[in-house]
Structures are given as C-alpha cells and as structure tokens.
Amino acid sequence: MRSRQALASEFIGTAMLLATVVGSGIMGERLAGGNVAVALLANTLATGAALIALIATFGPRSGAHFNPLVTLIEVAFKRLGWATACAYLVAQVLGAIAGVMAAHTMFELPLLMQSTHVRTGPHQWWSEAVASFGLLTVILNVAKTRPDFVPVAVGSYITAAYWFTASTSFANPAVTIARSLTDTFSGIQPADVPGFLLAQFAGAALAFALFTWLETDHSKQHENHV
Amino acid sequence: MRSRQALASEFIGTAMLLATVVGSGIMGERLAGGNVAVALLANTLATGAALIALIATFGPRSGAHFNPLVTLIEVAFKRLGWATACAYLVAQVLGAIAGVMAAHTMFELPLLMQSTHVRTGPHQWWSEAVASFGLLTVILNVAKTRPDFVPVAVGSYITAAYWFTASTSFANPAVTIARSLTDTFSGIQPADVPGFLLAQFAGAALAFALFTWLETDHSKQHENHV
Amino acid sequence: MRSRQALASEFIGTAMLLATVVGSGIMGERLAGGNVAVALLANTLATGAALIALIATFGPRSGAHFNPLVTLIEVAFKRLGWATACAYLVAQVLGAIAGVMAAHTMFELPLLMQSTHVRTGPHQWWSEAVASFGLLTVILNVAKTRPDFVPVAVGSYITAAYWFTASTSFANPAVTIARSLTDTFSGIQPADVPGFLLAQFAGAALAFALFTWLETDHSKQHENHV
Amino acid sequence: MRSRQALASEFIGTAMLLATVVGSGIMGERLAGGNVAVALLANTLATGAALIALIATFGPRSGAHFNPLVTLIEVAFKRLGWATACAYLVAQVLGAIAGVMAAHTMFELPLLMQSTHVRTGPHQWWSEAVASFGLLTVILNVAKTRPDFVPVAVGSYITAAYWFTASTSFANPAVTIARSLTDTFSGIQPADVPGFLLAQFAGAALAFALFTWLETDHSKQHENHV
To answer: What is the per-residue pLDDT for D218?
Structure first.
C-alpha cells in the first residue's frame, strides 16, 4: 500500500513545512524592526497554520508524518515495515532540505548556507525532549481517538511549543538537519544538531512508553474491576 | 473506570498546561523588548493553543479537567465520587507544580521560586469570579450539547479571557497555586492566592447554579406548555 | 419553546460578549505602549475567540443571536414571533450594558461612562453597512447549510471585519448602544450611535434581500432547467 | 445547475475577499506606527479568517472558487464547462475590483488608484509559483478527501503563505489584477501583474499535474501489487 505516491507526499509535505519555517522566519525578522517577539509570533502563526493545511492535505496519502520520530514510532507499533520506513526517512530529510532551498530562493539567499546559530546545552536539550514528548503524546492519542482532529491538534500544539520551550521546539530530526543549512532566524549550527537529535529521540521514546502503558494497563484494569 | 491512567493523564496534562503558561510567559517577556502587550499576545496564543491540543489528547482518558473547579462540579453532579475527585485534585496540583519546574528548567531558572507579583484587591477578585463563571459555563454547556467541540471552545474562551479580565484569567485553583511558585511574567505572590481561590470558587458555584437552572426549569416548562 | 432560559442565555451571552469587547480594548490599550495596531490585534483576537466560545455555549438554548439584527431577520423569516423578539431585544440591550459594567468594574473604572470617541461620517456608515451585510450573509448561509460551523464562521468573520472596515465593525445595534457607555478604546459617542444603527439596519436588510433571492430564484431555475 | 446565484456568489465572495485584503492592509499600515511586521500580522489574520468565513458561506452555492486558478482547474477536470467558467472568471475579476472600491470608500480614498508598489523579479515569480502550487495542492486534495475542512485548510494555508513567500502570496489572478488598482499596503504596480499571472499559472499547472499523478498512478499500483 505504501507507494511512490506516499513518498512523494512525504517529500512535498516536508518541503512545504520547511519552506514555511525558514521562509516565515526570514520574513518575520526582516520586517519586525528588531522586535524578536514579533518575528517569532509571525514564525509561529505561519508554522502552526501550515501544519493544519499540510496534514489535512497529505494525511490520506502518506499519514503526513513529515517527521522521522513519527515514522519510527509507527515501526515500533509494527504499523510500518523497515523498508518503507527507511524510504520515508530519506524522503523527509531530502524534502526538508529542498524546502530550505525553496525558501532561500524566494528570499534571494544562497541555495544552502551553514548556520552559525548556537543552540546547545542541557536547557536546550531538556526543551527538545519535552517538546518531542509532548508532540508525540498529542499525535498518538488524538490519532487513536479522533483522527480527523489531528491537523488542528498538531498545529495547535506546535503553536504553543514555539513559545513554551527555550529551543522554540524543533521536535523533528528532519527539520533539525535541514535547519542547520540556513543561516537565518530559524537556523541551528551543525555542531549542535546531534544534541538536539538525541534529546528528540529520548522525548519520543518516553511518549511511546507512556502511550503503551496508557493502552495496556487500562485493558487489564478493565478485566479486573468492571 | 477512573484509573491510574486517568490520574496520570490529569498529572501530565496539567503539567504541560503549566509549562505552557509559565514558559511562554518567560519567553514572551524576554523577547518582547518591554512591550507587555506583545508578551501577553504570545502568552495568550500559546495557552489557548495548548488547551486545544491537550484537551483533545487527554479528554478520552480522564475528561481532561486539569482544573479542580471542573472536578468539584463533576462531584456536585454526582458524576464523580469523592475518592476519585480527591485523587484528581492531588494529581492536578502536583502536575501543575511539576509543569512549573519543567518550564523553569528549560529557561535556566531555579526549580521553584516564590512569586513577588502582586495580584489582589476587589477588582482582581471580581475578574477571577467572572473568568471562572464564564469558563465553567462554557464547559458545562458545550460538554452537554457538543462534546467534540470542547477543546476548541475552551481554548477560544481562555484566549479571550486573558484579555478581557484584569487578572488575565487564572480561573483554576491548581494553576493559581502553581503560579505562586514562579517569580516570572505569570506569577502571583503566595499571599494573594487565597483571594483568587475564593473568587474562583464563587464564580464556579454561580456557573453551577446557572446551568442547573437552565436544565431544570426548561424541562418543567416543557411539561407545562408543549 | 422560547423561554426564560432563552432570554437568560441572550442576556448572559451578550453581557460576556461586551465584557470581552470593552475589557480587551482597555487591556490592549493599557499594555500596548501606544501602538494602536497591537492594541487592536489583542481586541480582535479576544472578540473573535469569545464569539466562538459563546455561540457554541448558548446556540442550543437561544440561537445565540446576541444581536438585534439577527433577531429581526428571524422575525422577517417568521421563525420568531414579535413578542419573543421584543423580549430578545430587551435582553440583548440590557445584557450588553451589564457587560460594559462588568468590564468597567474589572478595570477599576466607573460603572458607566459617556463615550467621547467620535465615529461618524459617510465612510464610517458605509463601513458599518458593509460589515453588517457581510455578517448577516455569513450567518444566514452557514446556519442553513452547516449550522455546526456557525461559531467558527462568525468568530472568523468578525476577526476579519475588525480590520477591513474603517469602523472596526460594530455590526450590532445592542453592541453599539452599550459601547456609547464606555469612554475607552472601544467607545462611540452617543451622538454618533443613530448613524451607526441606520447603517447596520441597511446592511442587514440588504443581506436579507440577497439571501431571499439566492434561495427563491434557485428553486425556480431548478424547475425550469434540470 | 450553475446559475445566476452561483455567479452572484462568486462576485460577492471575491469582493469581500478583496475588501478584506486591501482594507486590512490599509488599517494595519495606518495603525502599526511603522512596524511592517505588525501591519502584515493584521493583514494575515484578517485574510485567513475571511477565507474561513467566506468559503463556508458560499461553498454550497458556487464552490467558492474566488480564484481563476481554481475555476480553470475545474475545467481541466471537466467538472465545469467553458461557458460557465468564463462567466465565473468575469464575476471574479469584477467582484475583486468592486471589493477594492468598497475598501477605498471605507478608508476615504479614491475609488480606484494605480499602484506604484514594485513587485517583480525572479524571486517574486518563484514565490508566486510556489504559493500557487501549494494553494492548489491543498484545495485539490482536501476537497477530495474532506470537503468540510476546505474553509479551514485554505484559510490556514494562506495565513502561512503570507509569511513564507517573499511576495506575500497573491496566488490568485483576479486578486492580482484588482490589487494593481490600489496604491496602498497590498498593491502591485500594473507593469508587474503579467509576471505574477504567469508564475501563478505555472504553479497551478504543476499542482494539477501532481494531483493527477497522485490519483492515476495509485490505482495502477493497486492493481499490480495488492
């Protein structure tokens, strides 16, 4: 069932997501006259809204993962084979990089750059772990009980997470890698990428464990007490 | 039916709500360059969006109260026993405090602080009473006629209430207690907590009375006139 | 079927709407440091969000008109009798004034004031006519084809209309009367109220005519050509 | 089935869309005190919200195209005849111009002006191609799998696209032509219109090709492998 169409959907969807993240960051910073909060408000509004539109658009074709954490958890639940998952991961990373290139072209910048934006240290890693834990917890639970609401739930969650984490919530390894290739508002210097990825995987693993516990234990209790 | 899973959901949901309220307040204030309106816009956007995502996520597991006022009204309607309710209240308060600690850690602050933010006086108490009355009126009515819309209705209501009340609408005793433990944008000094709690209980009691009257009387009229 | 509960719902809903409009205007202006656009953004966000929550809350009880234009059009369609309609209008105007008083009390202002905010002239009247025409067109069409979407459609429409009209879109006679009683951001001086009301009725009448034509003619064409 | 009612709906809907785009641009610029980001935030919020309300309002009557790109793709899919399509295009362009006139009248400006806002060059054209490709991809896919979500998906997409493209995402030939007639925030000088139109058609053609491939190929693969 997973097909070239699904891979194309992951590629295009992730590309449009990154074009939004990077492009709206550049636009926000250029227009905000030095007020970083206003720039981040624009960046937030654009990213949250884009997620609503893109997940609704590509959800029926590929699941609209756009995020290796989601794909790997689908593998862990045995809802996706490793072969398909690897193809998804490649499509996501290449799509993310293509999205950065698309944004740079719109704003008259080099196709790719090397970011010099420092984002490191335990506080940033903790932020990414919390952000990723929250994102996956939202996705796993809402996808199970109310799949039609996933676009709005994810868009809303990321809108919040841009502001409540010190890292502005990357929460996505493909996004993180691609954002190391832009030296603009939303960039992260390449040296800081591994720390972010590790924190993201840790947060996602915790969300996986929580969801499994919430699901498993509940049925036991159902047998014992009802 | 109420289970360890429900309590965990209340704990985690309230923790993420407080991480959002406190974290986005810190981020907003740090970035806004002294424009308090811009900081509060960021705080508002994040909190409203988080409520949409979190209520959709944990609603099917615990009812997604995240608020002692909601739990106590469920008891008043005899839809929740006292034992479960007490466990809910503990989970909410502990979760709220954990959320403040999570936010402080992200922003390199002490785990807990004592707030020095003065919020007191009849105008503030009236604000909290109105805010709590409105919140519970929205929840009780929408939960009855259109439960799927509760996440959006509550997120929208709080978005409005952050701006139309002079207190920025705490409207939640667990949130109020936890916010006394942060000396940042969203804090409230401990001495001012009891006044807020009393006002919140009064507002919730009024919402309970209104809803009961709206429900009871209507059926009588139905018998008499139709 | 229309009952004391419906009237109470109109009263409370309109009161909360006005508390939002006036309260968030005061809060926005106080915090925005002189940037009127930021104050109006806060006012807009709060009002649009409040409409989503309040219409969802009171829609099943009273239709959630909160607006004499809506009530009068229901009379024109013979879906509401004159007696009920008059009671609705009284509840809306009294509720609106109560909402202004609630907001003033929150922000430590006199219970009622006389506005000195000049809003007059053909450009303002044209703005109100367009705003009211649009509002009623949205309500009539969406209520017919997709009633569950009315809260979001109306909240979204008013969010837009605050910005695309020169009058910030009152589009509601009860709101207009009540806003003459606050000398704050959202006020309108009493002398300018009649012009606004006339323009609003004209816009609503046009929306009524358009909707009637859209409905009637279509069925004729259906008979002739299909 | 396409009728005078549908044409009136396209005319009025496109007029209200343009009144929103142009009017909120003027209001944003006048109030923002020189902060272009704040002005564009207001413009974005208004436009995205208007699209949600207007598509929900007129969708059942005309399909709520408001955009020649959408109409032409309906022709390409043979869901609309050329005669109706031409009438739609005329209604959209005239409606768009009427909307600009309505906005100018609200803000005490001449009925129509000639824009002097330069928007040209390969980066702008690339922006418009990306914006139009994205818009049509969202519309085609969401309209197929989840038509009720189209208003929210389109409103969200345009909210994002105002910020992630360097051109602020016109993505609509009728809108582009009409915006050449306003010398305000949202204008485009007439000489730059043809470049925008060509880029928009190219982006829409690509979206059409992608959607066709996504649809066609998938069924083939279904026959071969499942």
So the answer is: 52
pLDDT at A1: 44
- For D130-149, how does the pLDDT look when each residue is reduced to its tens digit (9 = 90+)? 999 999 999 999 999 999 99
Tell me: the pLDDT tens digits for B167-207?
999 999 999 999 999 999 999 999 999 999 999 999 999 99
Residues from chain A contacting residue D142 (CB–CB below 8 Å): 53, 56-57
CA distance D144 to D114: 39
Q: Distances from the Cα of C101 to the Cαs of C89, C108, D38, in angstroms?
A: 19, 10, 31
Cα–Cα nearest to B134, from B156, B161, B155, B159: B161
Distance from CA of C82 to the nearest CA of D (A): 28
Using the beta-carbon criterion (under 8 Å), do B157 and C19 form an inter-chain contact?
no
Measured between beta carbons, which residues in chain D are less than 8 angstroms from residue C226? 1
Q: What are the backbone dihedrals phi and psi of residue D170, each rounded to the nearest 5 degrees, phi first?
A: -70, -60
**Nearest Cβ partner for D160 among A1, A49, A103:** A49
Mean pLDDT of C22-44: 96
- Residue A223 burial by CB count (10 A; 0-12/13-18/19+): exposed, middle or buried? exposed
What is the least distance, in Å, from the CA of C45 to any CA of chain D? 9
Chain A partners within 8 Å of D52 (Cβ): none
Chain A contact set for B155 (CB, 8 A) = 156
A132 vs A121: CA distance, rounded Å: 17
Tell me what percent of the residues of chain A surpass a pLDDT of 70. 95
CB contact under 8 A, C49 and B214: no
CATH no., domain A4-217: 1.20.1080.10
- The CATH number of B4-216, from 1.20.1080.10, 3.40.50.620, 2.60.120.40, 3.60.40.10, is 1.20.1080.10
Residue B140 in this model has a pLDDT that exceeds 60: yes
Residue of chain B nearest A141, judged by CA positions: B57
Number of other CB atoms surrounding residue C111 within 10 Å: 11
Please judge whether C160 and D49 are an interchain contact, meaning their C-beta atoms are less than 8 angstroms apart.
Answer: yes
Q: How confident is the model at residue C1 (pLDDT cuts 50, 70, 90)?
A: very low
Q: Do D60 and C141 touch (CB under 8 A)?
A: yes
Give CATH for domain D4-213: 1.20.1080.10
Tokens standing for A107? 């704003």
Nearest chain D Cα distance for residue C116, angstroms? 20
Using a cut of 0.90, tell me whether the model's pTM lies above it: yes
- Homologous superfamily in CATH for domain C4-215: Glycerol uptake facilitator protein. (1.20.1080.10)
Please give the average per-residue pLDDT across A87-111, as a whole number.
Answer: 98
| Residues of chain A with C-beta less than 8 angstroms from the C-beta of B13 | none
Q: Hey, what are A215's tokens? A: 């699901």
